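TICKET: design request
STATUS: open
ATTACHED STRUCTURE:
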């Protein structure tokens, strides 16, 4: 009886620990390379959007 209780507790704990991982954390790199970014690459922005951002920064400086 005691063995059955211990076994069921272990199965429940194992099930909870395996199910506790969020989907967003599954499949992420676990081994990192020093000095290397392993995330998604940056998106390219259009020249018009770049110029708009440049003008906005220029205006914020007070010129």
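STATUS: resolved
RESOLUTION: sequence designed for all positions
ATTACHED SEQUENCE:
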């Amino acid at each position: 009886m005691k063995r059955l209780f211990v076994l069921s507790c272990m199965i429940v704990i194992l099930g909870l620990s395996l199910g506790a991982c969020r989907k967003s954390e599954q499949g992420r790199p676990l081994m990192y390379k020093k000095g290397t970014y392993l995330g998604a690459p940056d998106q390219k922005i259009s020249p018009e959007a770049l110029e708009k951002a440049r003008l906005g920064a220029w205006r914020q400086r007070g010129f």
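CLOSING REMARK: The chain has a mean pLDDT of 84. The two ends are 81 Å apart (CA to CA).
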